[in-house]
Amino acid sequence: MQRAQVSFPAVDKAANPYTKKTETPSKSIAFCTGTITSRILAFAAGLFLVILTASQIHAHFAQKNLAEEFVGNQVGGVADTYFDGLNKLMLTGAMATRDELPLQIKQQPNVLEARVIRSDAVIGQYGPADAREMAADDLDRDALKGKETARIEETPQGRRLTLVRPFRASEKTRGVDCMGCHSVPTGTVLGAVRISYDLAPVDVRIRNAGLISLGIHGVLFFFGMALLILALRRTVAAPINRLTALMTRVEQESDLNLRIPVDGRDEIACAAHAFNTMMERFADIIRQVGGATHHLSQVASHLVMVTTRTQAGVDKQLVDTEQLVATLTQLAGSVQEVAHNNPGSGRRGPPSRQRCEGRDENLHLRPRRHLRHVRSTETGGKRHPASGYR
Question: Where are the domains of the chain?
């Protein structure tokens, strides 16, 4: 029996279907990246709202404090103007007309109250004061002790700023020598000026400015969210959708030739590049497996052919051997019959008969030995289970 010589031909990569092929995935495949986009948008919207709220609150209180500081300085200027008017009246000897001065002060916008409070030193020098010039509350009494007080109160009409500013006797009190008119020690509190200012118009302006700022920020919020949505769709959702669609198509069609276009160097582009590399390696593995399978199929076909030929030869040899045995058996029987029927065979004596019988046995044994030799060739020289011969 001859061994089959098997050779493995080279695989033709040009004819192999698993070659690189770049295709754009179909848009009809359902996408599943809405959750990522919505989470990013929700986080951005929440962060923007938090920043907007904090900014509005800070801006509101900053404007409010700035307005209160500005109004406080303005009210202080009104109080100084009131005191300067009293000094002029005193220097010109027109103190009898001092009641007109608070009326002029009240003509200024948002001024609700303007009056002067006389101290005990002035009362002791110039006599009792009018009821309107007497201390009415703790603010007035604290001012006569030399303490300047500014207080904001809530009223049904809105907020009100009340300033009570004391004035001390000196040689240069706002450019006037008080010691020439008042016989008191230097630094003595001569009196105080009380001014009340309406903050309601200022609060209305602050509130309106806050609403306008809120509206502008709201418009900017929606405009920014629209730009963010467009940016996310272009830079995040669209590449992920293409990658997902291509993966789904590979799963459905089992096509390892598909590749996704790689554009950029971001994380999604790196993922697409890794996917393309993985598909190429899968295709190479499939090509190797296909080539090995093809070679194995050729070897198996050749082995089947050789085995079929060998089995046919063995079967033919067995048939020929059986025919030879039958022929030899018939020949031996004919020889015995001739020996018995030959009249001269008895005269020659026993030796001739023994030689015929010996030949007869050899004729019977030779086909059997030949048959055992054929079977031993089939079994590889192993002992036949039904006989004791090798």
Answer: 1-23+257-390, 30-255
d(CA 99, CA 101): 5
Distance from C-alpha of 133 to C-alpha of 127, rounded to nearest angstrom: 12
How many Å apart are CA 162 and CA 154, to the nearest integer?
11
Cα distance between residue 65 and residue 205, in whole Å: 13
Contacts for 40 with CB less than 8 Å, ≥ 6 apart = 232, 236
User: What tokens were used for 107?
Assistant: 């003509």
Phi, psi angle pair for 333, to nearest 5°: -65, -35
pLDDT in tens, the chain (390 residues): 444 343 434 444 444 444 444 444 444 444 444 577 888 888 989 998 999 899 989 988 999 899 999 999 999 999 999 888 888 888 887 877 888 888 888 888 899 999 999 888 888 877 777 788 888 889 988 998 989 999 999 989 899 999 999 998 888 877 777 777 777 788 888 889 999 999 999 999 999 998 999 999 999 999 999 998 888 888 888 888 888 888 888 888 877 777 878 877 778 788 888 888 888 888 888 888 988 998 899 999 999 999 998 998 898 888 888 888 888 888 888 888 888 887 554 444 454 444 445 554 554 555 555 555 545 555 555 444 444 433
Query: Residue 131, Cα to own-chain centre: how many angstroms?
Result: 76
Burial of 331 (0-12, 13-18, 19+ CB in 10 A): exposed
Residue 129 tokens, joined: 């004061």
Walk across the sheet containing 149-155 and list its strands: 111-118, 189-198, 158-168, 149-155
- The answer to whether 196 and 155 have CB atoms below 8 angstroms apart is no
Query: Tokens in use for 168?
Result: 């001390």
- The amino acid occupying position 289 is V
pTM of the predicted model, to two decimals?
0.56
Class level of CATH domain 30-255: alpha beta
